[in-house]
Amino acid sequence: MYKSVADTAQDLSMPEHQVMRYVLEGRIRAVHDGQQFLVNSDQFVRYFEQLERIKEEIEIWKNTPIPEDIDIKDED
Length: 76
Description:
This is Excisionase. By secondary structure, the chain is of the alpha+beta class.
């Protein structure tokens, strides 16, 4: 599905000028219909999957208790 640069920027939570810069640099694939650039939103499916996986891994890391250090000696 093709979307405008403005819609793509909203979906990615990025400023519109940054998405346009990425399009012009070739970092985001797009087609030009003569008046505007259209971005195929299917190219971001993998990005969003990886983003969700990373968020889950961060939550697991944050909820993992810190193990006791075996080198700490009791000085009582």
